[in-house]
């Protein structure tokens, strides 16, 4: 695994804007041929637009403008005209070639920070990012989880659901996941059926209920717990390692093939259904398959057990 793959690459806006969009066969962006999934930039907030579940900002660093999205709407991380240091995940955008889904936004008070970032980013771009990196098989870090994220991970891996009390904002999302994993529940559910059948506390009127459910479904899709299986029917399925990831792994390892763990993870998250699934969820599923002797470790590669 290239260490740059999961690091926040220090770049300029012009570097990101010249990166071609991922092809249908590969979901990742490439900088000098090396896969990058995250980036950091320093620039001025040139515009901001509030949406229902997010705020969209335009960052101008003097070399170009890049859109970044903050999903929190209650406390905006910055204001128009602020100099900010933005860390985020690279995602395709309908309006531009790439956008950042912000994971951290820091308002910078030192005006020299932007020039320092320019110098460092240009140096890295010319002398580091264009170098071929040695392959390093790394253990994926497990980030700190919210109660909802932990519950979704357990559902994905087929583990018993945790019983921690969720935050009030996450209660409906937790109720939806709990409803979908109960015994006898169908693998897929229409949105309207979920609105009608999932218990909500406290009760609410029809219009408020519909809006709350739409927001909860959007959150679960973003977390990698739900996949929109059929847009015309508004049909969703709960993502599980056993039904979504394992068939992909078996197909790749058929006929005695071997793959590194990181390559299997990348293969799974490259599939349309699993593109939002966190990498460490898939990694945990692979580790569980090894522990259950469904996969065998052979010379740092994985193969199907005989």
Automatic annotation (TrEMBL):
<keyword id="KW-0238">DNA-binding</keyword>
<protein>
    <recommendedName>
        <fullName>CST complex subunit STN1</fullName>
    </recommendedName>
</protein>
<dbReference type="GO" id="GO:0000781">
    <property type="term" value="C:chromosome, telomeric region"/>
</dbReference>
<keyword id="KW-0779">Telomere</keyword>
<dbReference type="GO" id="GO:0003677">
    <property type="term" value="F:DNA binding"/>
</dbReference>
<dbReference type="GO" id="GO:0005634">
    <property type="term" value="C:nucleus"/>
</dbReference>
<keyword id="KW-0158">Chromosome</keyword>
<dbReference type="InterPro" id="IPR012340">
    <property type="entry name" value="NA-bd_OB-fold"/>
</dbReference>
<dbReference type="InterPro" id="IPR018856">
    <property type="entry name" value="Stn1_N"/>
</dbReference>
<dbReference type="Pfam" id="PF10451">
    <property type="entry name" value="Stn1"/>
</dbReference>
<dbReference type="InterPro" id="IPR040260">
    <property type="entry name" value="RFA2-like"/>
</dbReference>
<keyword id="KW-0539">Nucleus</keyword>
<feature type="domain" description="CST complex subunit Stn1 N-terminal">
    <location>
        <begin position="15"/>
        <end position="123"/>
    </location>
</feature>
